[in-house]
Amino acid sequence: MHTSALVLFSGGQDSTTCLAWALERYARVETIGFDYGQRHHVEMDVRPVVLEQLRRQFPHWHARLGQDHVLDLAVLGQISESSLTRETAIYMESSGLPNSFVPGRNLMFLTLAAALAYRRDLQVLVTGVCETDFSGYPDCRDDTIKAMQLALSLGMERRFLLETPLMWIDKAQTWALARRLGGPALVELIVEHTHTCYLGERSQRHDWGHGCGTCPACELRARGFAQFLAGPDTDT
After folding, report:
1. What is the domain extent for residue 89?
2. Confidence class of residue 38 from pLDDT cuts 50, 70 and 90?
3. pLDDT one-digit tens code per residue, 123-166
4. What is the rounded CA–CA span in Å between residue 141 and residue 119?
5. In 3D, which of 36, 38, 44, 37 has the Cα closest to residue 9?
6. Which of 68, 80, 149, 171 is least surrounded by Cβ atoms within 10 Å, i.e. has the fewest?
7. CA distance 212 to 202
8. In terms of C-beta density within 10 A (0-12 exposed, 13-18 middle, 19 or more buried), how is residue 229 classed?
């Protein structure tokens, strides 16, 4: 039986929902974040705020929420020409992928997370990748995650389980999942404190949270929130 987990926690909506999901299931939960020179570096600033709010507002999770780890992954930003690591417009490339794709990012994240989990004796890796509402990133696909689970387990001689609670649900259902896990308080925490905007904009406050309102991440989050409010209870 799995009792411990390491959550890949960026400070965004999806990873915060995944963290709540893990806290409901595992007795010991730790978090890991990556500073890779991302254009929306403000997400690194909101991470500790979100963690503090989770501890304060949800005392039944407090004892389960353990150490937070932040790794310097500047080399990823140095080798990437993505719009997430460079001041450039976001557009679709001829390959069919948006130029916000950071090649190798999630593969590197999972490898380093597994190495830390090995040392910390954590059994499960939880990540918020999704194949339903996503930008076509190949490292967010279910097949990629399954392949990584096999490779990490074989390469480290440790049977890791990679969990992806959001893989087959859309953004409206992600909002609904947060409500099921933590009620309106968790939804409000996500709205007020998490960060998703690719441009790192936090001066504008919308009903769905802070952001520029026009980048793909903001549009997806806003559309999902509107569907969540308008539709029936879509909890999964």
Report:
1. 4-172
2. confident
3. 999 999 998 876 677 888 999 999 999 999 999 999 999 999 99
4. 27
5. 44
6. 68
7. 7
8. exposed
Residue 66 CA: distances (Å) to CA of 58, 99, 127, 141, 152: 14, 35, 17, 29, 23
How far apart CA 205 and CA 61 sit, in angstroms, is 28
CATH of the domain at 110: 3.40.50.620
Prediction pTM value: 0.90
In this structure, how many other beta carbons lie within 10 angstroms of the beta carbon of residue 188? 14
Residue 22 domain-assigned?
yes
Does the residue 190 lie in any domain?
A: no
Return the ∠ at Cα 117 (arms to 112 and 119), rounded to 5°. 100
- The C-alpha atoms of residue 22 and residue 19 are separated, in whole angstroms, by 5
| Two tokens, residue 67 | 């150490």
Q: How many residues does the chain have?
A: 236
Find tokens 């690194």 and name the residue.
Answer: 44
* Percent of the residues in the chain that have a pLDDT greater than 90, as a whole number: 71
Total number of domains in the chain: 1
Mean pLDDT score, 96-125: 85
Q: Where are the alpha helices (DSSP H) in 39-136?
A: 42-57, 59-62, 74-79, 105-120
